[in-house]
Amino acid sequence: MTESFHRSGEYENPYEGQQQAPVNPEWPPPPAYAPAPAPKQRKRGPVALLAAVAIVAAAIGGGTAYGIQELTGNDSVASSSTSTNVVPSAQKGTVAGVAKAVSPSIVEIRADSNAGSATGSGVIITSDGEIVTNNHVVAGASRIKVTTNDGRSYSAKVVGTDSKKDLALIKLENASGLKAATLGDSSGLQVGDQVVAIGSPEGLSGTVTSGIISALDRDVTVPTDEDQGQQPQQGDGWPFEFGGRQFNGDTGSDTTTYKALQTDASLNPGNSGGALIDMNGNIIGINSAMYSPAGSASSSSDAGSVGLGFAIPINTVKADLAKLRAGATD
Q: What is the pTM of this model?
């Protein structure tokens, strides 16, 4: 009976035929071999998939624009300085494309005062007719007439001025449905970036020129007294000081200095208050001063743009908008 019992145990032993170590009764028994059940392995797949879907949903819900851009192929962010592409993709990066997209947002400004008439430019920033321009374009004006790119004429009133930054905000009367410009970001601009300028030099409205950013953070000094602003912008143009020298006449004793973008895009009297634009169609500066060698001290052969122009960075303009809208008269 004993032999039969051992034979039965050996038959049931799964390790039959293998050399086994002697059993010490004080040792704990070996753990039973228990492979993971197949059904549990199959369940892990769907759980992981649901977790992945939840992560993706959370990312999209949290506004992860980069992921969406990668999926859709949206490449509208084409410059380190701006985040909007105003120019249609078919004309992206071309002067013609920028001109076509932005020209409807640029106006000609004629300001009449006791000293005569001055012509400048401006940028539409709201569809109901808020326009940013230079303070010296409208300072002391008794009447302001604005002509849009499509030839419509409006009367305008000054809302606010900041002579320290040479900025002004005017508002058209009874205007609606205008095309507002897109204000970009001037903080990421680099020397060599291509730019386009649009304005009304010498009363030639809608004039488009192009060039590059030739320098950053230039200290430009301009007059702040109202009498200077009333001078017609003809001949020598708007006086300013740069690098210890005065251009276009005497700036007077009451002046202000601001950090400006320097450009070699052709600017002439009448471009003041107009737009300096990046190749995506975003406004990155308001043209404010340019060297015009024509005048009594220069021969006619010297007349014309010499590629020395300055613009107020658009970030300075945006930081000043609330003050201008509140009716500042600095």
A: 0.71
